Amino acid sequence: MTPVLDRIRVGSAPDSWGVWFPDDPRQVPWDRFLDEVAEAGYSWIELGPYGYLPTDPARLADELDRRGLAVSAGTVFTGLHRGPSVWDATWEHVGRVAALTRAMGARHLVVIPSFWRDDKTAEILEPPELTREQWTHLTRGMERLGRAVRETYGLDIVVHPHADTHLDTEAHVERFLDSTDSALVNLCLDTGHYAYCGGDSVKLIETYGERIGYLHLKQVDPDVLADVVAHQVAFGPAVQRGVMCEPPTGVPALEPVLAAAQKLGVDLFAIVEQDMYPCAPDKPLPIATRTRRFLRSCGA
């Protein structure tokens, strides 16, 4: 018998259409993305990189309404481990995204730490491990951001552990959660990135359930991942090798992840994100349609 996952709200994102940047000739146009994400059977989307979708709230609301779509969250990248000196520039960027997110009626802002290794060139930008002082900057900075975003825009931040950032492995994620105030900062658990970095999503949900505020659903191909890890391939080239794969062909299995999330007894967005940058323009829609069908078979 298929379980009923009535606390899980499934959506997709520009990422599943190969969109990583506001403007790139190798990406599908924004209106095609909106047409196809609705055609694939999703009713929730994320904004993606700021500037990919129209940033005028009235125009974007009209485009979404015509397709029966609504926004679950906006996304920002931050480098708060660098300390108070980056706050003003961070807040300027966050403010633009948060204002549009709020205008679309969403309640979440996904916050991704900056990369220590360039995701396109593989250039090492910073040491992969933070110092004690940088950890303090990161945790206090995220708390400050959580408070400011809530007070100014009425949004909750959910911090996204991500490959090739300083918040990636199980040890890093647990340290981050143990060092931050749950009233200000919670987690966007991306099942693919967490598996990419060796983490167990079900274990994290069962251990830190009260800190799980949002989900990204994706899987990794274990064979490609083993080669990526063995040769220390950066995340961008790893994606081009197909490290993120179509469910249910990869890991982690999504059924137990969704079941564990349902047991939390709270409403959660679960947004499909299959990294495919760059990809052929006709590739995403069939995958997105099959993925939506698969998630329905799981009860979501």
Structure characterization notes:
The chain is an alpha/beta fold and 300 residues long. The protein has an 8-stranded parallel beta sheet with strand order 1-10-7-6-5-4-3-2. The chain has a two-stranded antiparallel sheet with strand order 8-9. Strand 2, helix 2 and strand 3 form a beta-alpha-beta unit. Helix 7 runs parallel beside helix 10. The longest helix has 22 residues.
- The best one-word shape is globular
Termini gap? 13 Å
CATH architecture: Alpha-Beta Barrel
Largest beta sheet: strand ordering: 1-10-7-6-5-4-3-2
Number of helices: 11
The mean pLDDT is 97
CATH third-tier fold name? TIM Barrel
Strand content: 15-25%
Structural class call reads alpha/beta
Quickly count the domains: 1
Please provide the count of β strands. Answer: 10
**What string, H for helix and E for strand, traces the elements in order?**
EHEHEHEHEHEHHEEHHEHEH
| CATH H-level superfamily | Divalent-metal-dependent TIM barrel enzymes
Q: What low-confidence regions span 5 or more consecutive residues with pLDDT below 50?
A: none
Helix content: 40-55%
- Cα gyration radius (Å): 18 Å
Biggest pleated-sheet summary: 8 strands, parallel
CATH class: Alpha Beta
Pfam family, one: AP_endonuc_2
Protein name: TIM barrel protein
Domain Xylose isomerase-like TIM barrel: 34-297
